[in-house]
Records
---
Amino acid sequence: MTRSFPPIPAARPVIGEPEIAAAVRVLRSGRVVQGPEVAAFEEEFSALVAGRSCVAVNSGTSALHLSLLALGIGPGDEVVVPSFSFAATANAVRMAGAEPVFADITPDTYCLDPLAASAVIGPRTAALMPVHLYGHPAPMDGLMELAARHGLALLEDACQAHGATLHGRPVGSFGAAGCFSFYPTKNMHALEGGMITTDDPRLARTLRLLRNQGMEQRYANEIVGANMRMTDVAAAVGRVQLRQLPAWTEQRRANAKVLDSRIAGVSVPHETDGARHVYHQYTVRIPGGRRDAVQRDLARQGIDSAVYYPVPIHRLRPYQDQGGPVLPETDRAAAEVLSLPVHPSLEQAELERIAGAVSDAGGER
């Protein structure tokens, strides 16, 4: 007889009564696009990024794209990025007319390795774009030094790292700009949306022009822009979520500690000294070609898991024209990583079940 297990989903996006009430309030107001809710969300999100100016847009990808454009990066330029990320990281570079150049990652945090990035900097390099992957800060000290030494712009892809810090400094406050996503499965969401952070008032103004057809005043277009505005409905939901983010982050970190202490037989996530991981994903390593079998075992027990990312960006069809850079740590991570549920709504019994199942399935065979 097959035993039935209650399912444990990889993520449980929160859309509760406060979010619904906020959305209804905005809909009833008639002010639904780029209105007072967006302005309030920008001001409130600023507290998360050391008081930087915030510019709300319609997605994390738009945040990356517009930031590159506002920084003047385009045709003829190269941007150093990790290949171990979601395709949007490189897609934004291509959409700006520039070319992504892929560098390897550090094996412990899966973030862009400053030494590997240094090795691919050339005469056309205009920027570094590290990703704070899975919610762990990238090694910003080394990357900031590298950017300063070569006169490069530094753009943070913080789409998975709301509230993460390094030596007490929040991600999104290190580079010329930082970019966040509010997709429903992120640590906080706005149904959909993105945010750009910067400490440069001129850059912030350019970003606001770019998101709104190049206009600050209606029909007074100053530059060529697009419609990448955030709706007031999304902003109202985001404001509710932002207030809950600190508690959710603490619960994610507590859940991660339980998993750390209970899982055996596989490598649990690393947290660098001085870093505050916010565990957008709780990602273990399962070497020896056993990862897929472990994932199947978990699925049979009703435990959802995911591989982020099974195919590095440089091996995706749009980027295979780069001649195949040698990225051994990236390829090894893609073959070994498995992300487990860590979201705040998990119960202690579910955490115990996850840890036990991974330990049983992941042990050496």
Note: The first strand starts at residue 53 and ends at 57.
---
Amino acid sequence: MDLVVVLGLCLSCLLLLSLWKQSHGGGKLPPGPTPFPILGNVLQLDFKDLSKSLTNLSKVYGPVFTVYLGMKPTVVVHGYEAVKEALVDLGHELSGRSRFLVTAKLNKGFGVIFSNGKRWTETRRFSLMTLRNFGMGKRSIEERVQEEAHCLVEELRKTNASPCDPTFILGCAPCNVICSIIFHNRFDYKDEHFLKLMEKFNENVRILSSPWLQVYNNFPALLDYFPGIHKTLLKNADYIKNFIMEKVKEHQKLLDVNNPRDFIDCFLIKMEQENNLEFTLESLVIAVSDLFGAGTETTSTTLRYSLLLLLKHPEVAARVQEEIERVIGRHRSPCMQDRSRMPYTDAVIHEIQRFIDLLPTNLPHAVTRDVKFRNYFIPKGTDIITSLTSVLHDEKAFPNPKVFDPGHFLDESGNFKKSDYFMPFSAGKRMCVGEGLARMELFLFLTSILQNFKLQSLVEPKDLDITAVVNGFVSVPPSYQLCFIPI
């Protein structure tokens, strides 16, 4: 028992010394709640809804404050002005990516999302250039999305208006679009390997958003020596990497350096032509995994939440269908040119993204060098959390922010109204690489569904629960069923 007491006192002294050094030495961190020894502020935060906890703390400590996740300080930035200053005005200084323990084990510092420094710069630049070369932001990718939208509609017809859970069907469509860019082929919606891959991605998003994983991230011993859902996460990640590696091996056998077919071919060619340590088979697999996951799960989760909100608000769905009938009709596929003539539909899609607040606390950033932020001096390596909730649910920009109202993006004349507060894809140097593709998919997939089907809930709209089941890494909608009634 004496040993335990001594150990506790030593750890407490270490924490107090750390706090003193940050206040009087290497950095003057913003104020925040007093942390407990070892645990930091973990007991003062609700990891089921971390964003809400941070909002409550901002009311006490202001738009910039410090919390301790374990023994490590994290600066929280809350509110539009502070978030914009952090992500845009100080975009370079805050462009680092925090190395959370789980993501470090998953990606080992490679890829597009969680890499840093020169590796991140080169991988991101190459990925953007390659994606653009294969049509992202161009007419060619729009045609691919339209083709996949047609496949999606045909798959929904096969439900024969019977009750179904749309999770996997809505996941297959955006996944196939990114597959066409990465692998140069799509998968049948009933393909066994494809469905298993989708299942692994879906499960990992739920795990990453779970309260327990937030705890695991801040206490290394739990990761290495205790069982838990993080083991399933790592196992699923290995399955995904092995799937990708098999595809890479297939590409290596058929590689034609003069005729690259997709992202993997381009990466392999760069590996052959340049002696660059940032471009290896390991970095290729992780970059593909990043693009695969980001290009699939975020869009499919948004689509799933979209249909749930339209079931909850049938009057909104009916008005969108009226606009589709007037602008597009029944005899041609929706195209991106239609969006400018469909202000209400555009407003609905923006409001869906605003309301669901898909990434409440954004992906974690880190300070790349000592920086002065407002009246504080934040040392290099400090983790930064930017609250996207505080921007998307700002009462000044969006009256009644907790109410789903497409009017938030419409002016008095019914025209679409842009907002600087619309930040679902983040902002600055680390903003989402696939924003253009995601916005295209949301418009074309949703309008194609509503052009062909009436959405029918199994319960009264007033009884539908639209509350996210978890608000961790991602806001995950509750499970539900619906009927797709052909029009």
Note: The longest helix spans residues 281-312.
---
Amino acid sequence: MNKSSLWTIVGVIVAIVIAWVLVNVLFSVLAFFFKALVVLVVAVVVFFALRAVFAGSDE
């Protein structure tokens, strides 16, 4: 095995490790935004439900 083959193998391993980390970060960010979106939708539904309940009891 010559020196360039060794550096090629090391480069491939480093590229795989960097890609693995980037994909993990990307999925973490996407999961955070999805959770935030779900929380926002649930909060809006609860807000309008509470507003309807308390507005109906005042009349």
Note: DSSP finds one helix and no strands in the chain.
---
Amino acid sequence: METADTPTDETFAQLLQRLKDTYPGLTDSEIARRVGVHVSTVNTWVHGKRTPRPDALRAIAREFPKFTEAELFAAVGRRAPGPLSPDQEERLLQLFRELTAEQQSITETQMRALAEYNRSDGS
């Protein structure tokens, strides 16, 4: 859903600037500390040289709740993963355990392909 607060076609570097504007006094060092990455990593994001991995995007959303996972993932050109509760995770793991080794390998390959598709533009 587009609103005035979630611009479209925003790069991740632009989103980081908006994050800093939203949280006055926020520095690259503080972002790095709170997200659990090195400040040089944040610097590559700020300058548009790289974009964060999904775990870092989730950490940013957790640490800076005015920014949703959906808008963070969109800014790096990815679709946001669906939510996964601990109960869902346990059910999926239990189902996976019931598969043969060959079926587990096939399922893992399919899941990797879907995850790679989601890392692309998805079109």
Note: DSSP finds seven helices and no strands in the chain.
